[in-house]
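Sequence, structure tokens reproduced for absentees:
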Amino acid sequence: MWTYIAIAVGGTCGCWARYGMTNLIQSIYGRDFPYATLSINVLGSFLMGFLFIETLERLTITPELRSGVLTGFLGGFTTFSTFSMETLLLVEQGYGARAGLYFLLSGGLGFIAAFAGAYIARNL
């Protein structure tokens, strides 16, 4: 039961963090390109890589807290479904090159960020 509560609390906080970061990034860079979703997905991938390794190999935390952070917070924070919809909309609006760039950057940078997070966690 505590795992479900931890995931719910973490998910709520992750959604709030995503909303705040979206507003901040869009106020700085505008909405011509999905910079907010891209940056959230890259940061979320980095945090997932880093915290997954840290909480598995270095830090001793309860399984409930780990689930609350990894599944709840990062699940609420990252925006893969939004990424998919924004890519579709770019294609439908005739911006195929932008859609392709966004797709490649999200996947490539997301992987690099997850790798970097795991690497840093293992080598601190």
Summary: Residues 2-29 form the longest helix (28 residues).
